[in-house]
Amino acid sequence: MSTTLTPVLTASWDRPDSFTIDGYGPYEAAKKALGMDPDAVIQAVKDSGLRGRGGAGFPTGMKWGFIPQGDGKPHYLVVNADESEPGTCKDIPLMMANPHSLVEGVIITSYAIRANHAFIYVRGEVLHVIRRLHAAVREAYEKGYLGTDIFGSGYDLELVVHSGAGAYICGEETALLDSLEGFRGQPRLKPPFPAVAGLYASPTVVNNVESVASVPSIIANGADWFAGMGTEKSKGFGIFSLSGHVTRPGQYEAPLGITLRELLDMAGGVREGHQIKFWTPGGSSTPIFTDEHLDVPLDFEAVGAKGSMLGTRALQIFDETTCVVRTVLRWTEFYAHESCGKCTPCREGTYWLKQVLKRLEAGQGTEEDLSTITDIADNILGRSFCALGDGATSPIHSSVKYFREEYLKHFEVGGCPFDPKKSTVWGDR
Question: Which residues are in the NADH-ubiquinone oxidoreductase 51kDa subunit iron-sulphur binding domain (predicted)?
Fold first, then answer.
């Protein structure tokens, strides 16, 4: 059995005071960073190899380096805490159990990019998280870690916790910025990119919660320490969220490059008496994998080479009792509902994907419908205004690729073969 875990962000989660500033500690990493040159902080993060933990995997230090200096404009940091994708569930427990790692990361990041105002944009439905973030920010202000002349360095920072209204589209960074400015959350045309014209048309860095929360440990322990974990191009550790048909679901913090087989060993395997059928490596917007991919290293390059994306490391596990068609339909209904409607490929494409999948799941489709949904997906992929449309096509293409026979079985038997009334068709569960 593998025991490869690297508890850093999750190390104190079992402590009853983990969410308080007394349980967290005196922000030593921020104090150290504020004694460094801002460019040295950026270089340390570049050297660490930290890549965005929100899904895209873009090098974090490089993103910070895009901010123009000496431009005479205010700079902003915006933390994307609008975690809304089905299966993705790492940032919310992180903010609940260890909010001060995020607040300290905000201080270091803001200092590095020369920002004096920062925002945490958090999903509006998670009221318990919002309250905890407010409490953590209040504690930081009371200690003098936020506000004016932090640690006597002369650096000032104001941090605001902003609640969204529960729109998945606001997880897209430019839609988030529009929402933060008080407008309807819809993606902006790029370029210009946020690094040049972001919040209030000023240079802005938008980072994921886990990305920012990882920064204090890099400053405290050194770039080489972080780069010593993970793989050659996907360095460091990350939180892997196991959910679904697994014996012990939860958050497993491990080096990038660990395999699902190793994680399942630590999680007690698939639920007793069953076997894995398919799974997502990075949430519902990533192409699904099957049991033949159990030994694929979970890093950006290896997962990409096998036709999927590491994404947010949301490992949804489904056993043989699960209907692939019904699962893909449920995901597609979500994307159709959450489409902002700005662009035609996504607005119309997700709607029609949902209609055809409903027919297929009910056993009323034809083999031609499989060509129809893949054609629709092809016309969305790469043609939508933002990544929501592209993400909606991932379950379509991958499920037809790996489970075409199951799609055909639906209209052969006139319904879902996993329906208890038809269990003899597909085999008893």
Answer: 325-370
Contacts of 206 (CB under 8 A, 6+ apart): 78, 79, 80, 173, 176, 177, 194, 198
Residue at which a domain ends, from 317, 347, 381: 317
Quote the domain boundaries for residue 149.
21-227
Is there a contact between 207 and 60 (Cβ–Cβ < 8 Å)?
yes
**Does 15 fall in a domain?**
no
Cβ-in-10-Å burial (0-12, 13-18, 19+) of 386 comes to: buried
Question: Same structural domain for residues 37 and 128?
Answer: yes
* 126: number of Cβ within 10 Å: 22
CATH number of the domain where residue 353 is located: 1.20.1440.230
SS3 category, 105: helix
Query: How many angstroms separate the CA atoms of 368 and 365, rounded?
Result: 8
The whole-chain average pLDDT of the chain stands at: 94
Instruction: Please report whether residue 7 resides in a domain.
Output: no
Instruction: Note whether 376 and 251 are same-domain residues.
Output: no
Of 329, 295, 289, 336, which Cα lies nearest the Cα of 308? 289
6 vs 237: CA distance, rounded Å? 7
- Residue 5 inside a domain? The answer is no
Q: How many residues does the chain have?
A: 429
Query: Do both 371 and 395 map to the same domain?
Result: yes
Residues 213 and 290 in one domain: no
The pLDDT tens digits for 9-67 are 999 999 999 999 999 999 999 999 999 999 999 999 999 999 999 888 999 999 999 99
Q: What is the pLDDT of residues 319-365, one digit of tens each?
A: 999 999 999 999 999 999 999 999 999 999 999 999 999 999 999 98
Q: Is 424 helix (H, G, I), strand (E, B) or coil?
A: helix
Determine contact, residues 360/410, Cβ cutoff 8 Å: yes
In the chain, the number of structural domains is 3
- In the predicted model, is pLDDT for residue 75 greater than 80? yes
- Tell me, yes or no, whether 164 lies in a domain: yes
Name which of 329, 351, 289, 335 is nearest 418 in CA terms: 329
> 3-state SS of the chain: helix, strand, coil percent to 5?
45, 15, 40
Quick one: 191 and 291 in the same domain?
no
| Alpha-helix residue ranges (DSSP H) falling in 255-366 | 260-266, 300-305, 324-338, 344-361
